[in-house]
């Protein structure tokens, strides 16, 4: 069966990325509902600032976003069975040296934690289980990385 000539393909992500005017723009590199995805969503809801979240499910999408848009903070998800997302940290450090990198996971093995710091992570965070712990982390992240933007 032949496709109708008027059918169009969806635009690729590169053509749909548009700069926005929110004061804080975060890039989350993680699987759907991964630790970093959950952390970033919670962070955006608790921050006293307007936030735009960009999600990348793979390294190619993350690079595309980093190269096209101004990002103020990168949050990378790491899982004990798939710690490969942190391999993107050196690229971010080399090409966007002022962008802080947070690595977030549910349970982070000490070797993965050390590797994340070696690759350029500014913080390695174990996703807290209690709301008050999350609020404390949000306050720390805001003071350390986001207050200067606002």
Report the CATH superfamily: Response regulator
CATH topology: Rossmann fold
Percent of residues in beta strands? 15-25%
Report on the biggest sheet. 5 strands, parallel
CATH class descriptor? Alpha Beta
Query: Can you tell me the residue ranges where pLDDT is under 50 for at least 5 consecutive residues?
Result: 1-16
SS field, number of helical segments: 6
How far apart are the termini? 55 Å
Secondary structure: number of strands: 5
Outline, from the CA principal axes? globular
Mean pLDDT: 82
- CA radius of gyration: 17 Å
What's the number of structural domains? 1
Tell me which CATH architecture applies here.
3-Layer(aba) Sandwich
| Structural class by SSE content | alpha/beta
Helix content: 25-40%
Question: What's the gist of this structure?
Answer:
The protein is 39% helix and 17% strand. It contains six helices and five strands. A five-stranded parallel sheet has the order 2-1-3-4-5, sandwiched between helices.
